[in-house]
Amino acid sequence: MRRRLATTTLTGLAAVLLLAACAAPEAAEEADGRDIALSEVEQNASAESCWVAIDGDVYDLTEWIPQHPGGADRIEALCGTDGTAQFEGQHGGQGGPESQLEEFRIGELAD
């Protein structure tokens, strides 16, 4: 009986997670549409809150800092700045870093 209850509970949980995942793209689109001023990016200039503008988009790279293969210092140097030139100089045209960057997108840089 316990095994059946556990299976039913897990199946129900899986269904809830699936529904949430299906709804998530709409929420992500809303978050991605936010306009963020460079002055707000500049206020997030530390390893504790690291926002970077790259090619007109804004990314929260806080969670990426300890994972960056080139070292945390490479990302920390970009916190609170427009890091377009640095990113393009290091990763321009490379599909892997560009697609990975998208995971951290929080909005567009306001004009």
UniProtKB/TrEMBL annotation:
Disordered: annotated span: 84-111
PROSITE patterns referenced in this protein's UniProt entry, alphabetically: CYTOCHROME_B5_2, PROKAR_LIPOPROTEIN
Annotated Cytochrome b5 heme-binding domain residues: 33-110
Residue stretches of biased makeup (Basic and acidic residues): 102-111
Gene Ontology CC terms, in alphabetical order: membrane
Signal sequence extent: 1-23
Record flagged with keyword Metal-binding: yes
Family annotation (InterPro entries): Cyt_B5-like_heme/steroid-bd (IPR001199), Cyt_B5-like_heme/steroid_sf (IPR036400), Cytochrome_b5 (IPR050668)
Any GO MF annotation of the entry: metal ion binding
Keywords: Heme, Iron, Metal-binding, Signal
Gene3D superfamilies named among the record's database cross-references: Cytochrome b5-like heme/steroid binding domain (3.10.120.10)
Residue ranges of the TM segments: none
Pfam families linked to this entry: Cyt-b5
Family per record: Belongs to the cytochrome b5 family.
Protein name, entry field: Cytochrome b5 heme-binding domain-containing protein
